[in-house]
Amino acid sequence: MAQIDIYALGGLGEQGKNMYVLEVNQGIFILDAGLKYPTDELYGVDAILPDFTHLKRNRDRIRGLFLSHGHEDHIGAVPKLLKELSMPIYGTYFTLALLKDAMQDQSLDPENYEFHTITKDDTLTFKNTEVSFYQTTHSIPESVGMAFQTEDGVIVYSPDYTFDQNVAAAYKTSFERLAHIARQNVLALLTESTGAEHRGFSRTSQHMDYELNQAFLKAKGHRIIVTSYSTDIFRIQKAVDIALKYNRKIAIIGRKAQRMVDIAINLGVLKIPDDKLLKLKFIDDKNKNTLEDSVVLVTGDRHEPFYMLQRMMRKLDRLIHLNSKDHIIMMTPPVPGTEKIAARTLDILYRNDITITKIDPESLPPAHASSEDVKLLANILRPKYFIPIIGEYRHFYAMRKIAKEIGYQDDEIFTLQNGQVLRIVDGEAKGIADKVKSGETLVDGILEGDVHDVVLKDREILSQDGMMLVIAHLNARKKKTVGDIEVMSRGFVYMKENEELVQKVGEIYRNIAEQMLSKKQIDFRKFKEKIREEVSRFLFKETRRRPIVIPVLIDVPKE
User: Fold this and answer.
1) pTM (two decimals)
2) Domains along the chain with CATH numbers
3) pLDDT value at residue 549
């Protein structure tokens, strides 16, 4: 009896953190391992990763990690995963180059890990399973979908794709590979859902080409600043191609900082002739980098392009200072979490009479399949079961409607939640048969472990109510307080205007000290807890706020 289990450790009902698992007769195949960015209320959290507990419990059954492309929502959790588990890693040359660079940033030596470079023409053989690949059209080159051939049929994993035909070879969908997969018995299709609410076919890049051309014509004789997200290699290449068409030289701001762009140039994936690539020197009295007949590409992740424009406008950047003669072309529509800084940046630029062309978001080629793209893929492959992945539940709802429009019934469409296990036995879906542990790991800077809920709660309190330090010197041997009590506030109250409140906190300390210092043995832990409790209770009664109270007791042996 053949048994196939399909489930996700992340990526269902959310944006990012994509990590899917396919179990074929107990063998575990991991499909991507990404991160997602935190929301505003997760103070100080840099990234959110999947919970790997289930994989660690079943490490002996893992056959490998298979990567579809190099965006962080698909590979961002891999360095953390590899710190906890060892396994073979499969991906295209460019995807693995990005991953290795990210690993080195996390102090992991890629030489210690097992990498396998794959192409769209490769087929890998495992026990009871063959894995083949097909190239997809996405905003980053060398993206692939995957087909897992089992004895009961093929499971196709199809993340982040469109069918734009106006693209270079590194971005073209390999229809011949899709046709080959379609001639087999396709059991299930796991297809992305993020663009499912958009009806019709995905827009092509021709609209963006036209708007970029028009913007370059208007900026004739002026320096052009083009903003783009560093993950959108396809859009960056389009801007480069048009700059070359107008015989402009090209400078890239943040090449070293934005490693994806730098790696793409070094590997020839992003093509810029050497004689057209400018290397800028720092601005000084002799060098102003006016570069009137050039294009400056400002790349970065999320908020970074906006932040860099602000620095340039305020003359804080070391390479480019903006002036009223510059023409800015913005290919960076705000993404969730960047709306405020994007609006603030535009306000600063307009206030300084900077000419701005905002490429219409509707003209930018999307990176995700629209409704007709999904239908096309499903009609090519004709899968028995339809499984939406990658997206929020509103996207899954739209995918269910799409599937029904092309003839699927309710019992052939499976909308899962993270951790839910869809079981297929002898080619027949049995529904949700199990649930594995799934969840989130919050990463704070370079910390290895999860950020505890208590830490997040403290950060929330600090952001809203601030903190108060109660500092006292005591002589433990003589059991008495030495000198005055010092009370300090940060983000809570202005000390000079609240002297009565501060005096009352001092009195609370003295009352507690009288009790605690009268005992035979001084328990400093209980002493601090008592101060924290009593002062917190008093402050809430007086101000209806709950600052974090930090008692600091310093033992002074000599007066």
Assistant:
1) 0.79
2) 3-201+365-443 (3.60.15.10), 206-358 (3.40.50.10710), 465-555 (3.10.20.580)
3) 85
